[in-house]
Amino acid sequence: MTLLDAVVVGSGPNGLAAAVTLARAGMGVRVLEAQPTVGGGARTRPIPELASDLVFDLCSAVHPMAWASPFFRAFDLPGRGVGLVAPDIAYAQPLDDGRAGIAFRDLALTADRLGHDGDAWRELFGPLAADWRQITALAMGDKRTVRGMLEGARSSRGQSPTAGGLASAVRPGLRFGAALLEQGGPRWDRRFLTEEAKALLTGVAAHAITPLPSFAGAGTALLLAALAHAEGGWAIPVGGSQAIINAMVSDLEAHGGVVEVGRRVESWRDLPPSRAVLFDTTPRTLLRIAGDRIRSPRRGALNRFRHGNAAAKVDFVLSGPIPWKVTDVGRAATVHVGGTRAEMVVAEDTVAHGLHADKPMVLVSDPTVADPGRARGGVRPLWAYAHVPAGSPQDVTEAVTRQIERFAPGFRDVVVGSRCIPAAQMDRHNENYPGGDISAGAATMWQMVARPTLSPDPYQVAEGVYLCSASTPPGPGVHGMGGWHAARRALLREFDVRTVPDLRP
Ligand SMILES: Cc1cc2nc3c(=O)[nH]c(=O)nc-3n(C[C@H](O)[C@H](O)[C@H](O)COP(=O)(O)OP(=O)(O)OC[C@H]3O[C@@H](n4cnc5c(N)ncnc54)[C@H](O)[C@@H]3O)c2cc1C
What we know:
Interacts with COX5B; this interaction may contribute to localize PYROXD2 to the inner face of the inner mitochondrial membrane. The protein is an alpha/beta fold. The chain has a domain at about 5-45 and about 240-305 and about 440-495: FAD/NAD(P)-binding domain (3-Layer(bba) Sandwich). The chain is built from 19 helices and 17 strands. The strands form four sheets. Strands 7-6-12-13-14-11-15 form a seven-stranded mixed beta sheet, with helices on both faces. The longest helix has 21 residues, at about 165-185. It starts with a strand and ends in a 10-residue tail after the last helix. It binds flavin-adenine dinucleotide.
């Protein structure tokens, strides 16, 4: 049997980013994917029992990182014909009394609409949005080395990660750190006076599925909220998330790579012979397949990797737009449906205690806001999920409907059909989300930094064996950075390739 250069287990955005990077360096690459279709957490598929003409984003739907991540900036999705359309409202937070917090892409407009809190919002996000490149590079770095933390800035500006790069990253990094300390701790309530501003930022922090305030929540909120006011906004890919995946697969195939679907890897025997294997999987799956190749204490540390609380997904078919009380809410890429800051804190705390919240945190996205072509035959898809405890078997359709109905009376009347995937069933569709942990690892501050273990190299776990999924730095999201960092290390260590492959179309 021919010896391949590299095998990648899993075809999520990180697996494909690794495969593309390796193939671009001239390596022979094969990707093995368990599911019948390619793309992991970025698949867009029909759900025949719901609607014959529509397609649904099974996992990710909204993509600030598809234009901002250093990997995707180098890969250039727009240059490959992938439309990344950001509505002029990135996210919104409806409140009970007919008010709402609205995050426009335009920072000045957001500040104006926030009234009393306008200056405080501008003061927090003005500098972060202006320095989004450095902030993103730091957040998307390998969390271990100066070089790994600056490479993102380099690929966007064509400079090497030199002292100049370091100097330009220091001030934004310190500013981000100061904001993190403020928003991740007890002082988070001091900045804003109005519920609109407090709830608006808390809705973004809640993406981390963790008790609030917390550093993991604050890090998520500050990065995503800054990107809302930056160049590309909160983008929705035309046609769905799959457009990103299709562009990656095309590039991989054009450089000799192969993707095989329906190929679940159970054990090392299922792998074709190769010089390197990169796992776009959880540490648990990695250990099942390659555990006897990983030495202690690394193996023990990987075994202690913790999964977090969960999401239960609901896909709706609607006969028309959601009748939000505040009409601007319907123009947002994402609506955070959780009510006030205090309500969201209670909801996340309840989930952290292993219980279902009465008023759960719900995220909603209507892709037709940016991509009207997603509506067909008078109906449109609606993407939603609710935070629930890990492993919850509960069908959350009614809970999600109730939450939306609170802020959009008459929502039930536009619902034509729905399907729930409870958290407990999420891993049937993607084994990287055990118990419904869509972040592929608990979002504790420890695991945000020491992900997946505290070792100096978070990617290489044994000779020729790498982990490259969202369970490695920088963590969850469709950014391809775990795959890119891991592939760069594999190129250096297994193939002595020191130059960064050119990823441009
Ligand atoms: C409901 C939901 C909503 C989300 N919303 C967003 C969003 O709006 N924006 C955003 O940026 N992110 C979002 N995310 C997160 C994002 O989808 C993930 O963080 C991202 O896809 C992780 O990429 P990955 O390549 O590490 O893993 P995945 O995309 O999860 O891919 C892993 C792949 O590996 C395959 N695999 C696993 N084990 C094996 C095996 N043994 N053999 C063969 N194949 C295997 C899986 O089938 C899967 O295809 C969401 C996730 C979910 C579930």
